[in-house]
Design a protein that fits this description.
The structure is a homodimer of 224-residue chains. With 224 residues, the first copy, chain A, is an alpha/beta fold. The first copy, chain A, has one domain: HUPs (Rossmann fold), CATH 3.40.50. Helix content of chain A is 36%, strand content 11%. Chain A is built from seven helices and five strands, in the order E-H-E-H-E-H-E-H-H-E-H-H. In chain A, strands 3-2-1-4-5 form a five-stranded parallel sheet, sandwiched between helices. In chain A, helix 1 crosses helix 6 and helix 6 crosses helix 7. The longest helix of chain A has 16 residues. At the A-B interface, strand 3, helix 3, helix 4 and helix 5 of A face strand 3, helix 3, helix 4 and helix 5 of B.
C-alpha cells in the first residue's frame, strides 16, 4: 500500500475532504483533483486548494470543464434556483453525467501518473438521490475503466474507492474527526458566498447540519 | 426513428463523417460534437465545422477540454513525435481515456437534449489497437451510462451506436460513397497542416490510403 499513487476527487466539501483524510491515512501518495465546471458555488474551489495544501498532497489540479454550456441544472444555470425545501425524486441540483465526466478525467490523469486508485466521496445513504452516487453505478464505471485504457491492457487493475458509500453523514463525520479533519475549512453549500459561508437552507446544508446533530458534534460550519 | 435526436461525435475524419452520413440517412436529427482537446492536428476542427454545415446538422458544439494538460500522448505532447513506421502494441498516438472522456461529455449533452442515441465512429478492424475502440469497451460504457443519469432512472435507455465497428476501411468508404460523402473534405492525418493537408506517412494516413486502394477508389485525400 505504501507509496502507491491515488487520485482523490476533492470538491472541498465535507465528504471529499474526509475521503482525502482516509486515503492519506491508508498510506497513499495523494493527487487531488477539483473541477471548475461552471458551478455557482465556485468558492468551494478556493477551499479545495487550501485543504489540499493543508494535507500536503503531492499534486493538486484544477481542471476546467464547462458543464454550464450544457445547462440543465440549478448548479450550473443561474436561471434555475437552488431549492430550499425538499421535493420528490431527484432534485434540480443534479448535474447531468457529472460524476461520469469527473471520473473519466480522473481516469485519464491516473493513467498518465501510473496510478491504479481513484477515490471519490459518493454516498448513497444521506444523499440527494443522484443516480451517479449509487454502488451499481460505481461498479459499472470501474468495469468500463478496466477495458478503456492502455494500462488495463497492460494488466493494471483500476479500483474506484468509495469509502463513504454506505455510511451515514454522522458516521462520515466521526471517521473524519478521528483523523482530525478540520470541518470548518470545508464548504458543502450549493450557494455558498465568495468567502465559502453556507446558506443553511439547501439540500446539501440540510444533510450536513443533520449529520453534525446526529453525531452529537458541534456544527463548525460558517453560516451566512 | 424519424425525428429522434442523436449526438454524433465528429472529429472531421473519414470514419466519423461516414457515421454522420449513416445517422442522418437513418432519419435522426443530428447534433454533432467536436473536441478541442489540445491535439496537434487542430485543423480537423475546421473541417468538422464545414462537414457539420454541409450535412445541415441541427446543432454543432466544439467543446474545449485540455487533455494536453495530462500529456502522455504524441497527439497532445509536442515533445513526443508522431511515428511514421509501424510498431508493436498500442502506438504512442493513444490518448489516455480519450473516448471515455468524449463519450461522457456526449452523455451529458444527450441527457440535456433528451436524446437516447450517441453515435461514435470507432472501428476494431483497420485500426491502431486503441483499447477504447473495442466492442467490449463500448458495451461496458453503454451499461455504465444506463446507470449514470436521471434519464436512465426515468426509463430512457441510452444506446451507443458504433455502425463501423466491424467494418474494414474499404467497407466504410463504400458505405459512405453510397451516401455521397465527399471524402476530400475529411482529415484523418495526425499531423495535418493548418489547411488540413495530410502527411501520408502516419498510422492514420496509412490505414486511410490502404482503404481507398482496397475499395478500388481514387484517393481524394489532399496530401502535403
Amino acid at each position: 500500500m505504501k507509496n502507491k499513487k491515488a487520485i482523490v476527487l476533492l470538491s472541498g466539501g465535507l465528504d471529499s475532504t474526509t475521503v482525502l483524510a482516509l486515503a492519506k491515512s491508508s498510506g497513499f501518495q495523494c493527487y487531488t483533483m477539483s473541477f471548475d465546471y461552471g458551478q455557482r458555488h465556485r468558492s468551494e474551489l478556493n477551499q479545495a486548494q487550501k485543504i489540499a495544501s493543508s494535507f500536503g498532497v503531492v499534486g493538486h489540479k484544477v481542471f476546467n470543464i464547462d458543464l454550464a454550456s450544457f445547462g440543465g441544472s440549478a448548479l450550473t444555470d443561474g436561471s434555475i434556483g437552488v431549492p430550499e425545501v425538499l421535493s420528490e425524486g431527484i432534485p434540480v441540483t443534479y448535474v447531468p453525467a457529472r460524476n461520469t465526466v469527473f471520473l473519466s478525467l480522473a481516469l485519464a490523469w491516473a493513467e498518465v501518473l501510473g496510478s491504479a486508485d481513484i477515490f471519490i466521496g459518493v454516498n448513497a445513504v444521506d444523499y440527494s438521490g443522484y443516480p451517479d452516487c449509487r454502488p451499481e453505478y460505481i461498479d459499472a464505471f470501474e468495469r468500463m475503466a478496466n477495458l478503456a485504457t492502455k494500462s488495463a491492457i497492460d494488466g493494471c487493475v483500476m479500483t474506484i474507492h468509495t469509502p463513504l458509500i454506505a455510511l451515514t453523514k454522522a458516521e462520515i463525520l466521526q471517521k473524519g474527526m478521528a483523523l482530525e479533519v478540520d470541518y470548518s475549512q470545508t464548504v458543502s453549500c450549493y450557494q455558498a458566498d465568495s468567502d465559502g459561508r453556507a446558506c443553511g437552507k439547501c439540500d446539501s446544508c440540510r444533510l450536513r447540519k443533520q449529520g453534525f446533530a446526529d453525531a452529537n458534534l458541534e456544527d463548525v460550519t460558517r453560516y451566512l
